[in-house]
Amino acid sequence: MSKMPPNSLVVHYHEIALKGDNRPLFVRQLIENIQQATLRLGVQKIVAPRGRIILFLEEGANWTEIVGRLKSVFGIANYSPAWRRSTGYEAIEETIAALIPEKAFASFRMSARRGDKSYPIRSQELNERLGRFVEEKSGARVDLENPERTFHVEILPREALIYTEKHRGPGGLPVGVSGPVAALISGGIDSPVASYQMMKRGCTVSFIHFHSYPFVTKASWEKAEELVEHLTAYQFHSRLYAVPFGEVQRQIVTSAPPALRVVLYRRFMVRIAQELARREGAKALLTGESVGQVASQTLENLAVIEEVAALPILRPLIGFNKDEIITVAQEIGTYPISIQPDQDCCRLFIPPHPAVRARLEAIHQAEAKLDIDGLVKMGVEGVVMREFRFGEG
Ligand code: ATP
Ligand code: MG
Q1: Is the pTM of this model over 0.85?
Q2: Which of 68, 192, 329, 373 could be cross-linked to 335 through a Cys-Cys bond (beta carbons 3.0 to 4.6 Å apart)?
Q3: CA angle, 385 then 386 then 389, to 5°
Q4: Distance (Å) from CA 43 to ligand 1 centroid
Q5: Using one digit for the tens of pLDDT, what is the confidence trace for 113-146?
Q6: Domain 180-389: which CATH class?
Q7: CATH number for the domain whose boundaries are 8-168
Q8: Ligand 2 centre from 198 Cα, in Å?
């Protein structure tokens, strides 16, 4: 019995439980995301009775892989391996007995719930009988307030569900419930982390990368592809728009003062990204900017960039330190991809001393010499789109 792998999983969510009227929608999305994440791993069915989700596993289901996948399903607060047995009292006792030797514990609590009210033994009586049984078996004492272990027994209509350990899930909101956003993704460290943060808040992210190929190698574009593929594990389906940006940069370089270049690049990125965001139905743009990290990210320059934005620009890393961003990048596995060498479009034609406070009039003067609409159109029309589906690497 102790060698018998769990044949179910109980998944708990917390944040979404707070969302009142939206709750059924959140739960439905969470179930759908769990389904997507565990496709072809032997999940037989998923049910959602009373405030939690239960996965029924087929015999021989890929248990460890399923648990690994749940770690990237946002909205899961915690999950427990669970054993589904017949509802007979002996079978329940036997299952609990098998769970005891795993780890020693000094105190415990029984938590029985009778979902099926026709079950002959009432919850209180189950708690008492099973409690005595565990006391005898383990030598541990009952502690209702602060137990080291809780044994859950739930009586479903035809089966009993028994579980004890809780593992932390990633938390957050299920991807899809907060609406679509369009991320400006470079090949760098920050923008993939920013994208991850918003997925964790329930947004579906589509990606836009600006490259200067063929002025430089395709390295940054390929990195963006690799990053998007990696991040698709959290949302199951992604689109990456690759925008040719070399010509825009070339024209900015020939007509604008060097110190203004970076801010001008960013304004064009926002204008083009916005057009693509409209196609995607995205409600906001998303960047990896954080105050003061580089010259283009002072409050003054952020305001100058934002002047051309019709959509809100989300900057989830705005108050993060670089080392904090790197920690997340390492946790989610984007870091090794991001630090591969590339030729980022913005390092091409980058001036040695970018303006820390670009003045709006100077920017407007510089842009007056450019065919703004024409350049935006060129970017949008030159786009190459690629789709990514989870598990299709
Ligand atoms: P990152 O690590 O995300 O590249 P960074 O610290 O290097 O950020 P910048 O290069 O100033 O900062 O870029 C600021 C933000 O502008 C990025 O986080 C990203 O959202 C966007 N961005 C920069 N370059 C590109 C690009 N080539 N394609 C798409 N978005 C870009
Ligand atoms: Mg960068």
Answers
A1: yes
A2: 329
A3: 145
A4: 40
A5: 988 888 999 999 999 999 999 999 999 999 999 9
A6: alpha beta
A7: 3.30.2130.30
A8: 19
